[in-house]
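Chapter summary example.
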Amino acid sequence: VNYDRMYKLKKTYFFLNAKYQVFEANKLSLFKLLPMHKEAIIDYLNNNSVSFEDKDDLMNLITFCNQLYVK
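The structure predicted for these 71 residues follows.
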């Protein structure tokens, strides 16, 4: 038996655009999907601790991004 390997389960979240294209949830994907709101998103990320591996953080981030379209 070989015990020199460790495995870790990692959750990965994704963004889906209107054309059903899939993008891994990270800053670069977010900027690519919403280039017109890049500055507002940068401000949000600087003022809020966002982990792209945390479901609640991503839900709050998506709620913020959705509000950008309402303004």
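To summarize the output: DSSP finds three helices and two strands in the chain.
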